[in-house]
Amino acid sequence: MKKKTKPMERMSSEPLPLRQAPRCLARTRSGTPCQKPAAKGKKRCRLHGGAEGSGAPCGERNGSYRHGLFTREAIAERKALQALIRGFREDARGALSALDATPGAKPSGGGGRVCDGAGRGSSAPFGRGNRVGPDYGRDDI
Hints:
Elements: H1 16-20, H2 72-101
């Protein structure tokens, strides 16, 4: 005889909060999704990396740490510096446009760019403007 399913009765013996918990998003070796509930606040179960303290250590304690260029702190510092430079540029553009708007306030001189002969586009072989890197352009070396 065929059993009828009753939607108000439980079909399994596990408690209701465990049944309603979000599931692990990992795939098993056979390609099927993991059936275990995800760890609290994580997207993986304790066996697939959701356990407390799992994962690689941060910073220099990690074995693949090289230079720290892409650490969270370095990225945040670069973004803050870019925002600061962007603000300075906007202020400078505003000051230049205000200077252009007032008649007779332009500085006298060549009006062009001042170049020492060793910048970009120059034929000088050892110009400081052509080099890029951490050691170039520093006088203390």
